[in-house]
Amino acid sequence: MRRFLSTVAVVVLLGVAITAPPWQAAFPLALAQPQRSPAAPARSASPTYGHVLNVMQREDLPQGFAIHESATNSTVWPSLPCFNNLVMFDPGNPLERPDTIVGDLAESWTWRDGHRSLLFSLRAGVRWHDGQPFSARDVKYTFDLLREAPDATVRLRINPRKEWYDNVEAIDAPDPASVIFRLKRPQPSLLMLLASGYSPVYPAHLPPAVLRTRCVGTGPFRLKEWRKGEFVEYVRNPDYFVRGRPYLDGLRYIVITDRGTRFAALQAGRLDVAFPGEGSKTLAAQLTAAVPSMVIREVATKVNDNLLMNVKRPPFDNVKVRRAISYAIDRRAYASAVHRGGAQIGAALPPRPQGAWGLLEPELRGLPGYGSAAEDRATARRLLAEAGYGPGKPLRVEMATRAIALYVDAASFVIGALKQVGVEATLRQIETAQWHPIVTRREFLFGTNLTGIGTDDPDAVLFENYACGSPRNYSDYCDQDVTRLMDRQSQEGDPAKRRALVGQIQRRLEEDAPRPVLAWRLDYFAHWSHVKNLVPHHSVYNWSRMQDVWLDR
Amino acid sequence: MSMVIFVLLRLAPGNIVDILFATGGYVNDADKAAIVRELGLDRPIWVQYVGWLRELASGDLGKSYRYDVPAWQLIRPLIPVTVELAILSTLIAVLIGVPTGVVSAARQDSVVDHALRIFSLAGLSMPSFWLGMVIILALVAGAGWIPPVTYVSASENLPLHLAQFLLPALAVGYRSSALILRMTRSTLLEVLHEDYVRTARAKGQRGWLVVCRHALSNAILPVLTVIGVEFAFLIGGLVVTETVFNLPGVARFLVQAVLWRDYPVVQNLVLFIAIVVILSNLLVDLLYAWLDPRVRYA
Predict the structure, then answer these.
(1) What's the burial of A353, exposed, middle or buried (CB within 10 Å: 0-12/13-18/19+)?
(2) Cβ contacts of residue A340 below 8 Å, gap of 6+?
(3) DSSP labels for A309-343?
């Protein structure tokens, strides 16, 4: 028996030992992994070719590579290396503004007829990954598909951004190298929408459904394998139209659904790059402490936490109640408590300087929730009293939110803040599968929500979230004055005048409080120091082409 | 059984179309109805059920709603991963649980017995996923190393493959070993008080020989049942361990499929788990007969 027990002990110890790090010394090749390099300067100043970049992916691709049928970065982030846009935001510049837009499949573009017509000249000699030539026909096909043109031969199964192209009257392709977008009314911001990661050009010779299972694009990387639930692997496109690009031999997006494991894998060097929007301030501090050479960049995500109040149903059909709720929540305390300081305060559009259109700090003062906390709470109580609620008759509401931590954390803070002004809110957590159907059908009264914006332009944000009848205007807010202002800003060619109009709209939205913004999240994007030329933008969506990235190993 | 799986799935709120639109962030009722029709979800449940049975009978597991590929193509690579992890975990559990249970019973109320009982109590109290997470965090903090996060097959690289499987197997096996230890100890204690054990001792047989040859062979039958149940449980119960160690197994995929309401994948995976449970119970019954002549000749 003693011998038997000894044998068991040896087997167990061997099992443990074989998995433990000292074993690496004995089998260095088997467990070869990136070293925890000291914070040394780059060995090579000029880009070098080769290597495979291991990239974090938080979940499997929900719609495959069909970016136009999806509204999540879980699709865009791993799919963009396969595609190209007409235009894109300069990959090397974190700011996304009209002046940072550069050509992609379009070599040049010209506005005509007072921003009513946009002419693109396309690159010659571009081929799809399956060898077919790219032409203006593909561009026309893609954007006719998106705007659901009457003569389009196919339809997308799901078309979440149809509204983006509502103003496009026709798309002409007079020759294989030219495309003209004809607009119903002037819309200078169209270029911003076309530069978004959500606007790649699809191949006209394939049905859009094909892209749900495989990727055929013109981009710098070709799909090698998508092992469902595990990884997406790309190899270099040797025929890429940008000479000398990409630098990398390939990309590997590794699906890791557990957040703790994702960051352990990054810290251990199994991954080179994090997923955009995943890094909190606390996590960044932990990573830096563990791996001093880890590069952490603070960037805006263009994702905000907001409150949804169904303005069609009492008590939120009363603007005084909505405003009281907004006054009750101290935005600075919210950013500090819920995000540990890793968030910015701001109204409907992303705050400056990372955003282009947000209200500045002095402009926010005086708006509900941005002043002195004590005074704002007193105002909230007064407004509630005017609406007929008080200690004798407290306002009781049920707050709905999606049953995931990001949402529940926000909801918990709000419930606590409302209690301080005498509002008794209870939390109702809704499973993800039910969340969007419920808010889209307006089967809620009050909720906390997260909203990401594809591109930092008032047209993309305002029409989608605040226009009368928009499916994603979850609060069902509809104000004719605001709608007129939205139309006016959209047509305004003078940036200064447009900014003034957009500021006016934002102040009005904060005062009407159908969907008060609580904070704009910041990301602490992490990557290893050997990853070069990967510049995270102040948005999570629009910069994952990877064509300029290289590894200095 | 198949009917229960089928109906329960459809009773859960929402379907794949709700999820598809959720990822799009909006709902268009006309488009939604079109997809529901396309997937056949508008047909009465019994029609869908008969259709599934017919497909199953012809060896066709249907097509994944989410990935639009045959369900079998998705399920096939998952099975070896989970089966290997379950076997390794069970092996570790048995290798730890049975010997320690024997020692604990043979040294009843000694310091060793108390220590082993604390060891088993700790195993039962610690969820395996928590232990898994602790292992991962300890490794990354202490050594800056964790096992590979993509699946490495044994033929590709055996040491890496073992590194990938042994840690989760240890995390899961420890919990199961605690159960086996307690069961071994209690059944063995019962047998050790039997007359024939006392007789064997009186005849001068050595202590360990009495315990291992005469008592253990009679005490092991209930333990075997526990091992069988544990193994069957592991096939579907490794969800969090597979998630924490990022292993592409059945349980992790099943949870994703449930969240996506990918009925064809869920139905077939649950059916697979049910088959494993039946087979492992059958195996335990056969082992009973092999180990116990009373069962064999009854």
Answers:
(1) exposed
(2) A280, A281, A282
(3) E-TTSTTTTSHHHHHHHHHHS-HHHHHHHHSTT-E
Q: Residue A268 and residue B145: Cβ atoms within 8 Å?
A: yes
Residue A54 is classified by DSSP as: E
Pick from A158, A212, A441: CB nearest B31: A158
Q: Do the chains contact at A1 and B212, CB–CB below 8 Å?
A: yes
DSSP code, position B215:
I
DSSP per-residue letters across A203-248: PTTS-GGGGGT----SSSEEEEEEETTTEEEEEE-TT-SSTT---S
A232 alpha carbon, distance to own chain's centre = 20
CA distances from B237 to A416, B8, B86 (A): 37, 19, 10
Q: Is A409 helix (H, G, I), strand (E, B) or coil?
A: helix
Whole-number Å distance between alpha carbons of A297 and A310: 37
- Chain A: give the shortest CA distance to residue B293, in Å: 25
Copy the structure tokens of residue B175.
Answer: 């919990």
Instruction: Look up residue A123 and give its two tokens.
Output: 């690159």
Partner-chain contact B146 A158, CB within 8 Å = no
Q: Name every residue whose Cβ is closer than 8 Å to that of residue B175 and which is 6 or more positions away in sequence.
A: B93, B123, B124, B126, B127, B128, B131
pLDDT 10s digits, A46-77: 999 999 999 999 999 988 999 999 888 999 99
A366 touching chain B per CB within 8 A: no
Cα–Cα separations (whole angstroms), residue A414 to A228, A377, A420, A438, A510:
38, 13, 10, 20, 17
Which residues are bridge partners to A182 per DSSP? A117, A170
Query: Using an 8 Å Cβ cutoff, are A263 and A500 in contact?
Result: no
**What are the chain A neighbours of B69 within 8 Å (beta carbons)?**
213, 228
Min distance B295 CA to chain A CA atoms (Å): 28
Q: Measured between alpha carbons, how far apart are the two ends of chain B, in Å?
A: 30
Report which secondary-structure segment, H or E, holds A524. strand A517-527
B63-91 pLDDT, tens per residue? 999 998 999 999 999 999 999 999 999 99
- What pTM was estimated for this model as a whole? 0.87
CB A264 to CB B137 under 8 A? yes
